[in-house]
């Protein structure tokens, strides 16, 4: 494993297109800002691992009997499945790099 | 119901308008980018997300409105841009169901598959509020 020392506000560049910046250090917590192309997914490792494991367990090569469920959505759900169940983060209309201080977690 | 048949016996034929493109694949299945979404009336509300190039391999998926009434994944700006979503209505959310040999069925609410209804481009996203979402939400419990 390559190990580099960086100070706050210093960065590393990977493959000429991915920038990882140390934004803040607070005790044993390090805040990193990551700028990567849309085609490069960035995930926290433990979340990536658990979803990957869940996907592998869910993949099936048989067509099993399915649990019986009402074809109707649950009472307080929107009438059209999936229609209004997401919340979109408002795009930041700016030409400057995105705010790396943003503490939005998953 | 035939318990041993594979997914190729579906009544829904593979055609361009039910082919789903996941440019990044699913987590752990990054090499599989093309899927076909299959639905049969008697299996409603479940759907099958079947690998286009491996028709014997499929994920059982379900719209989350049948799973949890208050589930609302929050999509980060990168995911919104990647999927080309212009409004929340453009998003079609499907969650992967795990059926275990014990008969237990759970739904992954932490890593939903979000499709753009207009383009059928999709991605397995990790919502901003993923920590509030269960990886194994029991099916049948609201």
What does this structure look like?
The complex is a heterodimer of chains A (106) and B (142). Helix content of chain A is 13%, strand content 21%. Chain A is an alpha+beta fold. A 3-stranded antiparallel β-sheet of chain A has the order 1-2-3, with no helix packed on it. In chain A, strand 1 (11-14) and strand 2 form a beta hairpin. Residues 92-106 of chain A have low confidence and may be disordered. Chain B has one domain (17-138): Roll (BH3618-like), CATH 2.30.290. Helix content of chain B is 5%, strand content 32%. The longest helix of chain B is centred in the middle third of the chain and has 7 residues, at 77-83. Chain B is globular and about 40 Å long. Residues 1-10 of chain B have low confidence and may be disordered. The interface between A and B is large, with 49 and 74 residues.
Keywords:
heterodimer, A: 106 residues, alpha+beta, three-stranded antiparallel β-sheet, B: 142 residues, mainly beta, BH3618-like, nine-stranded antiparallel β-sheet, 1 helix, 5% helix, 32% strand
List the helices and strands and how they pair.
The complex is a heterodimer of chains A (about 110) and B (about 140).
Chain A: E1 11-14, E2 18-26, E3 29-35, H1 45-58, E4 87-88
Antiparallel strand pairs in A: 1-2, 2-3
Chain B: E1 19-21, E2 34-38, E3 47-51, E4 54-62, E5 74-75, H1 77-83, E6 91-99, E7 105-107, E8 113-116, E9 122-124, E10 137-138
Antiparallel strand pairs in B: 1-2, 2-3, 3-4, 4-6, 6-7, 6-8, 7-10, 8-9
Short description:
The complex is a heterodimer of chains A (106) and B (142). Chain A is an alpha+beta fold. Chain A has one helix and four strands, in the order βββαβ.
């Amino acid at each position: 494993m390559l190990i580099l020392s960086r100070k706050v506000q210093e960065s590393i560049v990977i493959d000429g297109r991915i920038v990882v910046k140390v934004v803040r250090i607070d005790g044993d917590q390090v805040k990193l800002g990551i700028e990567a192309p849309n085609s490069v997914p960035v995930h926290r490792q433990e979340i990536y691992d658990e979803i990957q494991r869940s996907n592998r367990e869910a993949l099936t090569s048989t067509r099993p009997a399915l649990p019986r469920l009402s074809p109707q959505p649950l009472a307080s759900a929107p009438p059209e499945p999936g229609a209004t169940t997401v919340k979109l983060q408002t795009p930041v209309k700016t030409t400057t790099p995105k705010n790396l201080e943003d503490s939005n977690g998953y | 119901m035939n318990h041993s048949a594979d997914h190729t016996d579906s009544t829904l034929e593979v055609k361009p308008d039910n082919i789903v493109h996941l440019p990044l694949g699913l987590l752990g299945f990054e090499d599989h980018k093309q899927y076909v979404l299959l639905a049969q009336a008697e299996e409603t509300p479940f759907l099958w997300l079947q690998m286009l190039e491996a028709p014997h391999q499929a994920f059982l998926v379900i719209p989350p409105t049948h799973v949890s009434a208050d589930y609302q994944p929050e999509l980060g700006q990168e995911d919104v841009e990647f999927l080309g979503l212009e409004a929340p209505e453009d998003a079609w959310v499907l969650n992967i169901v795990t059926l275990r040999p014990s008969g237990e069925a759970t739904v992954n609410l932490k890593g939903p598959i979000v499709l753009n209804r207009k383009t059928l481009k999709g991605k397995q996203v990790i919502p901003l509020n993923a920590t509030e979402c269960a990886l194994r939400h029991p099916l049948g419990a609201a």
